[in-house]
Design brief:
The protein is α/β, with parallel strands linked by helices. It has helices at residues 14-25, 32-45, 53-61, 76-85, 89-104, 119-123, 137-150, 157-173, 195-211; strands spanning 2-7, 28-31, 111-116, 129-134, 186-189. Bound molecules: cytidine-5'-diphosphate.
């Protein structure tokens, strides 16, 4: 099965790129962050503490795929809680199993594009195509501020930057499946690349692999 793994920090442009690659190549797309967000959202809804591993694991075990597209998963509050539940190894195991099942049998049967933090390193280390999409913290905070404002949320650049950097640290410093580029990943720095240029560069890399 063809798997394209796309990892990187928040607001680097992974989602936009992954969706475009999937549509272009006729593959199915999975946003693995939405799994962690859905668990965090359910924990918050239940009035529990995201830092309580038992509460997070219970929600991970009854993950409902129907939750994944909920617009209320996209808030900064849920993102913060997602990075907290994501530190728990049993929660990660549960969600990793879900992602591996998707990669092994994507709905369209042709292949999958999965984006996240640990796809090329832990979830699908055998993936032939691995991209590590990154950008400067200042540029990522600029993009996330515009995205939140576009959805009608009050977002202040300095606060968004601080929040992103705190989440980067949490993701990079956790003991299990930390955010890191796989040694065989192709690094794409989008600080100075718009969505079209990033897509062109990524497609060149992916098609170059199948030609080789
Ligand atoms: O949209 P953004 O890139 O900011 O975040 P996301 O991809 O929705 O991920 C939210 C949080 O879930 C991340 O900060 C990680 O802590 C966690 N996550 C993870 O641990 N592993 C993944 N494969 C995907 C997300």
């Amino acid at each position: 099965m063809l798997v394209i793994a796309i990892d990187g920090p928040g607001a680097a442009g992974k989602g936009t790129l992954a969706k475009r690659l999937a549509a272009h190549l006729g593959l199915d797309y999975l946003d693995s962050g939405s799994l962690y967000r859905a668990v965090a959202w359910r924990v918050i809804q239940a009035g529990a503490d995201p830092a309580d591993p038992a509460a997070a694991l219970a929600e991970a075990k009854r993950l409902d795929p129907a939750d994944l597209g909920r617009p209320d998963l996209r808030t900064e509050r849920v993102a913060r809680a997602a990075a907290i539940v994501a530190q728990s190894p049993p929660v990660r195991t549960e969600l990793t199993d879900f992602q591996r099942r998707f990669a092994a049998s994507p709905p369209g049967g042709k292949g999958a594009v999965i984006d996240g933090r640990d796809i090329g390193t832990v979830v699908c280390p055998q993936a032939k195509a691995k991209l590590f999409v990154t950008a400067s913290a200042a540029e990522r905070a600029r993009r996330r501020t515009l995205e939140l404002q576009g959805r009608g949320e009050k977002a202040i650049y300095a606060a968004v930057l601080e929040e992103l950097e705190a989440r980067d640290r949490r993701d990079m410093e956790r003991a299990v499946a930390p955010l890191v580029a796989a040694p065989d990943a192709h690094v794409l720095d989008t600080t100075d690349l718009g969505p079209d240029a990033a897509f062109t560069a990524a497609l060149e890399y992916v098609t170059g692999l199948s030609a080789s």
